[in-house]
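Could someone model S-adenosyl-L-homocysteine with this protein?
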Amino acid sequence: MNHFPIFLNIDGRRIVVAGGGDAAIAKLRLLLKTTAHLTVVAEFPSPEVERLADVAAIRLIRRAFAPGDALCAALVYGATGDAAEDARVAAIARAEGALVNIVDNLTDSQFLTPAIVDRDPVVVAIGTEGAAPVLARAIKADVESRLSPVVGILARIGKSFRHAAEALPMGSRRRDFWAEYYATTGPDALANGEQALTPALHDLLARHLAAEPAQGHVDFVGAGPGDPDLMTLKARRALDRADVVIHDRLITPAILDLARREALIIDAGKTGFGPTTPQAEINAALIAHASEGRRVVRLKSGDSGVFGRLDEEIAVLDAHGLSYAVIPGITAAAAAAAAIGQSLTRRGRNASVRFLTGHDVAGFADHDWKALARPGEVAAIYMAKRAARFLQGRLMMHGAAADTPVTVVENVSRPDQRTLATTLRLLPEVAAGIEGPAILLYGLAPRQAARALPDLKEAMQ
Ligand code: SAH
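Reply:
Sure, complex below.
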């Protein structure tokens, strides 16, 4: 992002437009919607500019732009239609401390004017950094059609009621009040005219003040393997409502971006071998926030119920009588199998699939190796990177063939996803080259094995 969007307070400030032709008029149409003082400096103003000066909508100076014209101006537009003249205007304006925009000249402009959807005081600004004006117009048309024309009135009256609404405690109760106003109470009241809005707000506030204070609640949300598109709608809604989000290490920034900006985000990262947040601390945070009536999302990668210590956290909430719900997610095994175009079970090959961990509290995890070593068995092995040699040893000792296919999928569903197709024989060497989170699909080769071969070579180098 080379251009950072902000809303500049120009109430009562000067904005100067150099030029009196078509380019200047196009900018003036937009600027006339503001409460800034507009000055046009033009040697030969068009009749339309003259007319604006006649009705005192602008102040017109009939000469070429000169030093001093940009003093105390917030913004200056170079809109003379002449590149050399615009450059001269820009140099003067910059020297006098104003921000400059030169019409149709992205490189020499300090700011850009976005496409605007105007429901004053609600304003949607759309910018593409000059990359795609056609796209900006299409987005504008789309937003125009979605945003009700009365949004501005609702927001204006709402704003005048903000002080009164402070009678409700900050956080979800006040948010719920406003959500109801904008979704139903406001639009319904507006059907009886604008004057019906303030009384409707008073009624709504009285109802919300009389309501029972909200109970705290924890949603255990499975966020999936990393791609926000792989979250359920229910998970997204929970995240959207959360006051507090407590997330584990594997949650991607793209998913955290879906939380409300005011939400408190707590990183409760645990790495297998690196710095960890003690479980007791996570439990304490869950209880503290839920007890204070907040909506908490405990965000875990994949599915919360797969190697997620879900039961321990539920037990703690139960012990404190706090309410919770579990929202399932796509576990890494399911996403990895999808990535290699395979199914986890198949008629005639394997009628069951195991989810294993390479590690447990006691170190390398022990399993029913004999059963796993049988031909056709499939297992998704989590946290297996460091256990690769151990797994290979145990499985081969119990009779697994050295050429049993194994596929390692790293960073499943993320932009840097990598598939490494190998066999039990080469597994430790392949696993040594893995850095991100990886799942090991034992007994499965990618459907398009040929495609994965270069990856294997790469891993072996
Ligand atoms: N609850 C999670 C698993 C947590 S245990 C789930 O259902 O997926 C952490 C392990 O999950 C990692 O060591 C790795 O083996 C696996 N994992 C999680 N996200 C992954 C991803 N995006 N790509 C590959 N493996 C992943």
